[in-house]
Amino acid sequence: MKARKGYAYLTGRVLLHIFLYFLVLIFLLPFFWMVSTSLKTDEQLFIIPPQWIPNPIVFGHYKEAVSRIPYLLYLKNTLIICIVNIIGVLFSSMLVAYGFSKIPWRGRDIFFIIMLSTLMLPYQVTMIPIFIVFRKINWVGTFKPLTIPSFFGNAFYIFLLRQFFMTIPLELSDAAKIDGAGDLNILLNIILPLAKPAIATIALFTFISNWNDFLGPLIYLNDASRYTISLGLQQFQSAYDTQWQNLMAATTISIIPIIVIFFLAQKTFVEGITLTGIKG
To answer: Would you report the helix, strand and coil content of the chain in percent, each value rounded to 5?
Structure first.
């Protein structure tokens, strides 16, 4: 009987791993096709059936892709936006999340629900009114519409941090208050060192969302010297032709930072995602 259970368990594990490998293959196919296209000659692009492994392999498209557009300038602009947004989101979201989790005040839960309800508003609903506001204060054409709003908090990130802060025992804060520590001291010296996984998760989410953002820069940036990488990739397309190899090569290069950062912070990222929903 035990042998049958062991065999059934082993069979189930094998089938599960086969299914997971199949899913991984499906998710990797677009990435593999992008890399494959970036290494092809013109004749190999539209062959039927498709040629997955290029022959011959052409690496020159990568050099041409970087030199054809001011890639380093776009990289600098994108990094500026990403870094400022990470600082703004962490600064504002941590303060608000601490207030919702560790400071008792009248109406706290009601305001928390109101804040969460803003998540139901799609960006398309607020896009035009916000653009009108930024145009009135002459922010259109600068990085300000893409960075300053991050210093006013993000409902989703506030929720994640609040959930994580709730898992930290209240006794730690009470003991610090007895010793004379204020709320800012408690946040900086007690809460934040324990919340590193959640902070790393939010920083990674913020970096990825701003790195890949296309609609925001498209709306607010009208000067080519301020373009981000996502807008720069559009320059490989025109009304009459698309340079597919250069476009795929530049896209592959732009994905590399995200992959590197994710693998470097993978353990902390998984830990942060796991712990942010333990206690409500």
So the answer is: 75, 0, 25
Which helix or strand (DSSP H or E) is residue 219 part of? helix 215-220
Which tokens sit at 83? Answer: 């870094």
Element containing residue 36 per DSSP (H, E): helix 2-38
Torsion angle (degrees, nearest 10) of CA 221, 145, 187, 196 = -30
Whether the full predicted model's pTM is greater than 0.85, yes or no, is no
* Closest C-alpha among 229, 221, 183, 197 to residue 78: 229
Q: What are the pLDDT digits (tens) for 15-41? A: 888 999 999 899 888 888 888 888 888
Residue-wise DSSP of 139-162: -TTSSHHHHGGGGG--HHHHHHHH
Model pLDDT, residue 175? 82
Q: Compute the residue count for the chain.
A: 280
Nearest to 91 by CA among 183, 154, 181: 154
Say if CB 141 and CB 221 are below 8 A apart: yes
- Other beta carbons within 10 angstroms of residue 275's beta carbon come to 17
One-letter amino acid for residue 128 of the chain: I
pLDDT in tens, 55-97: 888 888 888 888 888 888 999 999 999 999 999 999 999 999 9
Q: Please, what's the b/e burial string for 88-99 (b: 16 or more CB within 10 A of its CB; e: otherwise)?
A: bbbebbbbbbbb
The helix/strand/coil state of 242 is: strand
